[in-house]
């Protein structure tokens, strides 16, 4: 079986599920939600890393079907919790193809209407590649924002987007890639860049989520730099839905 064929079968059998990595409000010391991270366990029990199968899903066009399953799964996993906790949100990762064709939007709207989850409780994350086709990305972002979703730029600092591109799009949240957080407190050349990435984000008036926070030193640094939100192993790994719900209640 080719990897592509295997992935097609996995899509048909709905073998993907999600773990939820908590996101913390640094000023309040509270959990405000989570990012949904895809997991694939093959029928033989082996795990495949998303770093391997997401690129394949993008090349083969299967990613839009996976995104639609993701939406259904998030609502299935967490609708009762989200209805009980109207301030909580879940961030969903979108591929560049999702941003281009926008086909996930009616799927998302239907799932939310059916479940009673409010649109502002679903955030959408797209990497800078998702914003390269500015016209189609703009239409998707505007439609999503009109419905009340927050749209965030993922892996900020690692892509190719120009400031003018970002300035011209109706966005207000960005996630600083973990490579810039890793560099804090180290001698690496990247550590020189980290304060500039944060300044740039502030200059654009973006809310900032720092990703990959692993140490108390990194937390102290980003807090001092005015970063509002943080995510990383210092707080929690990605968790099964019931463990995320427990984490949310413990940190609220
Ligand atoms: O835990 P981690 O290995 O989950 O994630 C690896 C990569 O896969 C990250 O770059 C992340 O953005 C991406 N990713 C995780 N979940 C999804 C998803 O549901 N859809 C898409 N398109 N990418 C995802
Ligand atoms: O959960 P963690 O961030 O350590 O995930 C690292 C990798 O391990 C991911 O690519 C994921 O696919 C896989 N993984 C996630 N949860 C589990 C698990 O419960 N058991 C095993 N064996 N692998 C997992
Ligand atoms: O969407 P994105 O590319 O940002 O995916 C987040 C990735 O980062 C996932 O693979 C997730 O498991 C991983 N991750 C989350 N927190 C940490 C962390 O604190 N340290 C490291 N090394 N990886 C993390
Ligand atoms: Mn992400
Ligand atoms: Na990221």
Automatic annotation (TrEMBL):
Domain EAL: 1-252
Subcellular location(s) of the protein: Cell membrane
Protein name: cyclic-guanylate-specific phosphodiesterase
Whole-protein coverage range: 263 to 514 of 524
Classification of source organism: Bacteria, Pseudomonadati, Pseudomonadota, Alphaproteobacteria, Sphingomonadales
